[in-house]
Amino acid sequence: MNRRLWGLFALLLLSCAFYMLWGVRAPWSFVLPFRGVKLGALILVGCTVSTASLLFQTITQNRILTPSIMGFDALYLLLLSGAVFWLGGMTVAGARPQIVFLVTASALIIASLLLFGTLMRSVRGDLLRMVLTGIIFGALFRSLTSFLERMIDPNEFAVVQAASFARFTQIETDLLALSACISGITLLRCWAIRHRLDVLALGRDTATSLGEPPRRLELEGLILIAILVSVSTALVGPLAFLGLLVLSLARLVTPSEKHAILIPSAGLIAAITLVGGQAVMEHVMALSTPLVVVIDLLGGAVFLALLLKGSGR
Amino acid sequence: MISIQGVSHAIGGKRILNDVTTQIAQGGITALIGPNGAGKSTLLSLIARLEPLQTGRILVDALEIGACSDQVLAQHLSILPQMADHTPRLTVKELVGFGRYPYNRGRPTAQDDAKVAQALDMFGLNLFAGRTLDTLSGGQKQRAHIAMIFAQDTDYVLLDEPLNNLDIAAGRSLMKTLQSMCADHRKTIVIVLHDINVASRYADHIIAMRDGSVIKQGRPAEIVDSSLLQDVFETDAPVVKVEGTNLVLM
Ligand SMILES: Nc1ncnc2c1ncn2[C@@H]1O[C@H](COP(=O)(O)OP(=O)(O)OP(=O)(O)O)[C@@H](O)[C@H]1O
Ligand SMILES: [Mg+2]
């Protein structure tokens, strides 16, 4: 298993080299920092999306749902338009992106504890009801967002508009340093609770009887997920099926139930997918197809296959 | 000793346990018997804090359920629920290894490995150790879950119908294992049994429940008779004595 993780790591290094060094025409001193920042953002997004999805699947005890499928990203965008609306009204020149990000992320933590904390207790174990709830939430959040967008000042509308679509070419680099710090701490916390997550994955009764009561861990997990989703959505926008795709791949490449294996494996696979995919798109295909389309196509197919096969657990 | 004091429980306005007060002495096998829906599983879940207590108190030695630390309790008391959670993709060995979690918090030592090996051996699971649970038969799965409880090595063990799915040989060997755990290691085992004859033959003490209350309790030789069957199950089967054990003729 460790050899496979090292193999994935080597593959990631290769994709990074490909992304950084291929077809450099402008002076190196300009290209390397320019590409380096985007590379960092892609890797960060890969780690946050994959870990948030893994955590969510462990907490909800299924292998099909991810935060984006349940509408976390859409909720982030709704809160973002709310924050822009509110903060934009207060300041003249518009709020700084860092402040907007922090306000939105905190709102997402509270909102997801309220919404998903109660929801998960009532529909737990009923996959179809969870999927339906996710679809309804997503649609509801999106229509509320477009309603708010209409009320926002046109100048500020651009902020929300840009965030509402997944994009890897224009990454929100203003936020990179801040979100790297925040998600670094969050990911370390996820790593620290990896053994407790293994026990939680055994089911609520077994976890309780092994001395790991699920309630507190589930709430902490929701907070960690909300932070991670905020980071990735703020940086590159909503990514519907990336989490599901990389988790399915991780379970194929490193078949294990241990979070000590799955967290790094899914993170590496997500980073490889994003960096390698973006390198191919930018350097080889000259951006003729956005990477998101390919990822969502593949991820969507995996989602359907899992749902139809009924292998929710 | 497990001391249950004035425990009542209701779900959705429906009374499931009615002011249950009883004590389960330390050492030996105590069998809980009673018809379907009597509240046996509910009582066990309350003792093992799988459900929060609504009224009353439960003490396991000096540990008060609901107040004591979860980790400490997990080193003293374990439970096999009636419907064990299913975790299809774990191997048998990994599952049994989780029994050591209350002691090692996920970082197994050599001593833990030895306990796991002993548990696999005890329940005849060596051949299946590397197989995932979804490739096993119902009885093999049940044995793997019991082996995990065994590896947890607690003073108190609660088992909810562990004989489900077991063939006669596995069932007898489980009951004998439980007896020797009590004799050699002073364990206290509380077990829900549907076959009153198994209770009569292997248990040291029987607690009979009906409609959320304890109706009768005592040593099998003293309480297993036609009136018990009449009071608890409302059936009038004859009871005969064979080699000192009271047996019910189906
Ligand atoms: N979640 C629940 N919601 C509503 N009623 C419940 C719930 N769980 C149990 N009950 C009810 O509580 C009563 C006792 O259930 P319990 O599972 O404790 O019985 P039991 O003695 O273990 O029965 P069995 O021998 O069939 O396992 C039953 O009447 C049952 O219908
Ligand atoms: Mg029961």
Describe the structure.
The complex is a heterodimer of chains A (313) and B (250). Chain A has 13 helices and no strands. Chain A is globular. The mean pLDDT of chain A is 86. In chain A, helix 2 (28-60) runs antiparallel to helix 12. Helix content of chain A is 78%, strand content 0%. By secondary structure, chain A is mainly α. Chain A has one domain: Orthogonal Bundle (ABC transporter involved in vitamin B12 uptake, BtuC). Chain A has helices at residues 2-21, 28-60, 72-90, 97-123, 127-151, 154-163, 176-192, 194-200, 204-209, 214-236, 242-253, 259-284, 291-309. With 250 residues, chain B is an alpha/beta fold. Chain B is 36% helix and 28% strand. Chain B has helices at 40-47, 70-74, 92-98, 101-104, 110-122, 138-152, 168-185, 196-202, 220-223, 226-233; strands spanning 2-11, 14-24, 28-33, 55-60, 63-64, 77-80, 156-160, 188-192, 205-210, 213-218, 239-242, 245-248. A 6-stranded mixed β-sheet of chain B has the order 6-7-8-3-9-10, sandwiched between helices. Chain B has a 4-stranded antiparallel β-sheet with strand order 2-1-4-5, covered by helices on one side. Chain B has a two-stranded antiparallel sheet with strand order 11-12. The longest helix of chain B has 18 residues, at 168-185. The radius of gyration of chain B is 18 Å and the shape is globular. The interface between A and B is medium-sized, with 20 and 29 residues.
Structure described in brief:
The complex is a heterodimer of chains A (313) and B (250). Chain A is an all-alpha fold.
What topology does this entry show?
The complex is a heterodimer of chains A (313) and B (250).
Chain A: H1 2-21, H2 28-60, H3 72-90, H4 97-123, H5 127-151, H6 154-163, H7 176-192, H8 194-200, H9 204-209, H10 214-236, H11 242-253, H12 259-284, H13 291-309
Chain B: E1 2-11, E2 14-24, E3 28-33, H1 40-47, E4 55-60, E5 63-64, H2 70-74, E6 77-80, H3 92-98, H4 101-104, H5 110-122, H6 138-152, E7 156-160, H7 168-185, E8 188-192, H8 196-202, E9 205-210, E10 213-218, H9 220-223, H10 226-233, E11 239-242, E12 245-248
Parallel strand pairs in B: 3-8, 3-9, 6-7, 7-8
Antiparallel strand pairs in B: 1-2, 1-4, 4-5, 9-10, 11-12
The structure holds adenosine-5'-triphosphate and magnesium ion.
